[in-house]
Amino acid sequence: MALRTDELPTYDVLTLSSLEDPYAAFAEWRAVGPLMNGVHGWGVTRHAEIATLLRDRRVGHAFPREMMRYATGSGPLLDFQMGTILNQDGDDHTRVRHLIGQAFSAPLVRRLERHIVELTDSILERVLDGEACDAVDDIAFPLPAAVISELLGLPVADREVVRGHAERMVDPDTSVADVEVLWFRTYIADALRGRTPDPQGDLLQSMLAAGARDDRLTHEEIVDHAAFLFFAGFETTRHLIASGVACLLDFPDQAILLHDDPGLARSAIDEFLRYDAPLRSVPRVTLEPITVGGRTVKAGRFLQLLIGSGNRDERVFVEPDRVDITRTPNPHLSFAAGVHHCLGAVLARLEARVVFERIGERVAVLEAAGPRRRVTGGVGTYASIPIRARAS
Predict the structure, then answer these.
(1) What is the pLDDT of residues 6-26, one digit of tens each?
(2) What angle do CA 9, 11, 13 make, to 5 degrees?
(3) Alpha-carbon span 370 to 60, nearest angstrom
(4) CA proximity to 286, closest of 272, 303, 306, 305
């Protein structure tokens, strides 16, 4: 069936990104059908269609420059997004993904486990005194920031400064993001200047070594992908830990389950990812005509795969608006799928598993200590979760 825009209700993804809780709207849209008419592209609402499209090679991630300019303007942010793996398909994507994927390989990540346990214990030791603290600033940020900084070989003293600039790179005001992209490029370029190529060294050194072997990998690509790796290794995990703490506060029966059996941390993190995905939607572009929910979307059209909606689809998940850390199976979509599956998923799972195992083992009381704040813009994570925690 050819797609007629006047037959479908309309949503605006920019308005959606400003909503603290979009899940009621998601439920209404799923009830209408799997496809929505969007102001900035078509929205896909249901789990089955989203899961299929994430793996469909007729749907790509390399957006035409004019389409990207419409969303980001024509400044440094546009150049950054056009030049990284975020906007690549085919051979270019495969080549760069192989390079930077080595940083997040399962064997390498497993070797980090003991160090991650030590870091987590030291972080929790500082907050288990019953005094008010912030689960984002004091737990969710320090661990992934420390790990990815160490992988990249960034100085400990720079972490807070780098964090501030990184967070402003996703500011909805693209003029702010443009300034931060330029800062990050300069910072990484300066860090590279003192490194020698070494495939066995830190990640920046291994990227330089790969560039020496492959003249298709430019210095600019190394700089931009090093900046991207900071996000891949930090932002998703920060959200996962923060939203997991929020879930335990909102569903205290699940906190009791975790305390009684810390081994449930493995399934808990999948449930936290399902219940409140780090990214509520991911963009794609149709490379050829494709059928969604019985309707044909033409080639060259913008799709928003509404991950947050698919993760609450009642056709797949029993009681989708309730957290159940024993839920199995749990086919959530939060790490995407197919060739664009999240590069940092293995590392994020390890870090989050260790954190929630330790919370289960060591925390007897976890309670709110003030109102929460969300990050504004397209990322649905928390800016602040005030808590009090007391040791077992």
Answers:
(1) 455 566 666 666 677 789 989
(2) 160
(3) 43
(4) 303
Q: Residues 347, 349, 355, 356: what is their CA dihedral angle, to the nearest 10 degrees? A: 180
Any residues with CB less than 8 A from the CB of 340 and at least 6 apart, and which?
Answer: 54, 61, 93
- State the Cα–Cα distance between residues 355 and 258, nearest whole angstrom: 12
Q: Please state, in angstroms and rounded to a whole number, the distance separating the CA atoms of residues 119 and 204.
A: 22
Name residue 267's amino acid.
S
> How many CB atoms sit inside 10 A of residue 197's CB?
15
Pairing of strands 363-368, 373-374: unpaired
| 296 CB neighbour count, 10 Å cutoff | 12
Q: How far apart are CA 229 and CA 35, in angstroms?
A: 32
Q: Tokens 């037959």 identify what position?
A: 7
pLDDT in tens, 307-344: 999 999 999 999 999 999 999 999 999 998 876 777 77
Taking a C-beta distance cutoff of 8 angstroms, is the pair 369, 11 a contact? Answer: no
Query: What tokens were used for 40?
Result: 């900035």
- In whole numbers, what is the pLDDT of the chain averaged over residues? 85
Q: How many residues does the chain have?
A: 392
**Distance of alpha carbon 304 from alpha carbon 281, whole angstroms:** 6
Q: How far is CA 345 from CA 123, 164, 278, in A?
A: 22, 23, 12
Residue 3 pLDDT greater than 50, yes or no: no
> What tokens does 342 get?
């999240």
Provide the token pair at 211: 């560039």
Instruction: Judge contact between 212 and 246, C-beta under 8 A.
Output: no
CB 382 within 8 A of CB 372: yes
- Residues linked to residue 391 through DSSP beta bridges, in sequence order: 363
Q: In the numeric block, which tokens belong to residue 279?
A: 């990214």
